[in-house]
Input
Amino acid sequence: MASRTNRDEPELLPVTAADAGNGVEAGQAAAGADVAAERKISQRVETERDGPGQENDDQERVSINIDLPEQVHSAPADEAAVAIDDVAIDPVSVDPESLLTRSVAIVSPAVVDPAGEEAPVGSETETESVYSRRDRLRGEPSTTPEPAAMLTAERLLGTGRAQRQRPEGRWSSLVYSASFGMVNLGDSAAVRASKLIDLRIHKQFDGGTRFVPILTRKGGVGKTTVTTLLGMALASVREDRVIAIDANPDRGTLAERVSKQTRSTVRDVVTRAASVTTFSDFSSLVSRDDTRLDILASDTDPLLSEAFDEDDYNVVADLCARFYSIALTDCGTGIVHSVMRATLQRADSVVIVSGGSVDEARLASETLTWLEANGYSELVRNAVVALNTGTQGTNLVKLEEIEAHFRSRVREIVRIPYDPQLAAGSVINYSRLKPLTRAAARQLAALVVDGLPTGRSL
Output
């Protein structure tokens, strides 16, 4: 049987990469290679069917060489950033150290500031970019998680730009109104100074009530008046509670400086101490001024030979320590009285009241000497002298010399000017005081608060 050959079929030529370059696609070349391989297998099978010994001279062998393009792997950008340089390894001799784990230093990208200069990570430029809303204002979404500080009132309630408060002060307010809010000169110097005083008076305390006695060895110099002014100035600014205690062992007049709302006195507080468990219980025993200053009156019973003693004061002070942040004590003239000892033991600072006459200034100075001699030198160095210039003889005395004397012994001195309300010795309306009087009271309050410890152990 003659061998069968496919001479009529066209001869398949090898497909090379050059053909692909002339327009032949790589997929067509691969398909031609598969067809040629199938035909070659078919010819080999037909030859084996004819049996051995047959002539296969006419059979042609077809071989196809295909050059496929080399596969190239391109690493992603994030892999390339931490890629380790290729190190050629000799398969015959391998260095043991090359098998150890290698550490790769990864350098974070630098932050570019608006000027175009690079800034290291963690710098102020990066910190500011976290809290910047410029991209969000342009409508661009945030690419990093926003901190909680970004939820500001200006952002959530404003109209796209920060709203500045209207300035205080006659000229600043006039310019602001005339420019329809475009020009804001800020608060005037006087307003800024007033706000600074408020900030000092508003100082917060930790660790219990601060006790401040107001005392001197001379009567009639204005201790009760100074106590009332100081308490009103404190209560009008502070958000916590302030109380003034009339600790005069005889007959005090502190409660007469405010509108009375109760007839209760320190004697009632001592008697009902066991039943006073809440501030509501205690507040029913005091009178409250418009400035929110609470006044605890002294006992007015003429049948009592002694209205207040050391034990009574300790009971009242313990109750006040439960409900108030600052407790002022209007002391009597008996500096050697037992109540004075209890008062000074709790004192965090003292206010010495001096009049404008020679004997009033001298007795105030002797009060400081007595305190130093009895172990209260620290209170003397931290003391504030209130120089009441509304007393008689003030116009005849050199007040500068009195101030120079006390300045060598105490921390600060404040002049209390003459005011008709204070001279009347009746109810004091804080809002109707002269501006200079209120300013002096606020200055005294700020100086007293400055000398009080911020924190202490209970």
User: Anything to note?
Assistant: Residues 207 and 456 are 5 Å apart (CA to CA).
